[in-house]
Amino acid sequence: MNKAVQLGILLLAALFEAGGDAILRKALHLPAGLSRILTFAVGALVLFLYGLTVNAPAWDFGRLLGIYVVFFFVIAQVLSWLVFHQPPTTAIWLGGALIIAGGAVLGFAST
Question: What is the rounded distance in angstroms from the CA atom of residue 25 to the CA atom of residue 56?
Fold first, then answer.
């Protein structure tokens, strides 16, 4: 599997995980009833798709999941800002820079 396909799978997995978490967060704030139950079910399904997506390929799990963390972080911050209206703080920007630097080290490592 080439690197572009691997990165695409990691991106899709991050979208599923961060998206599923956001859906569950929204469900927690809905009034009791069918719409809340259905929203929880959709969130659970999206998180299940994350688990399938990130674990289906036969790859170096530790290394690629280290790179995955970068995708998850970036997508989570975008969702936080756009969906929950919580822009990143200075601490999040600084911590995120460290996460991205760590992903770059893993991504460009020769082994």
Answer: 26
- Tell me the whole-structure pTM to 2 decimals: 0.85
Residue listed under structure tokens 């036969």: 58
Give the closest residue to 72 by CA, choosing from 45, 47, 90, 89.
47
pLDDT band at 58 (very low <50, low <70, confident <90, very high): confident
The residue type at 78: V
Q: pLDDT value at position 59?
A: 77
DSSP string computed for 36-66: HHHHHHHHHHHHHHHHHHHHSS-S-HHHHHH
Q: Are 43 and 27 contacting, i.e. CB atoms less than 8 angstroms apart?
A: yes
Question: Residue 102: how many CB atoms within 10 A of its CB?
Answer: 14
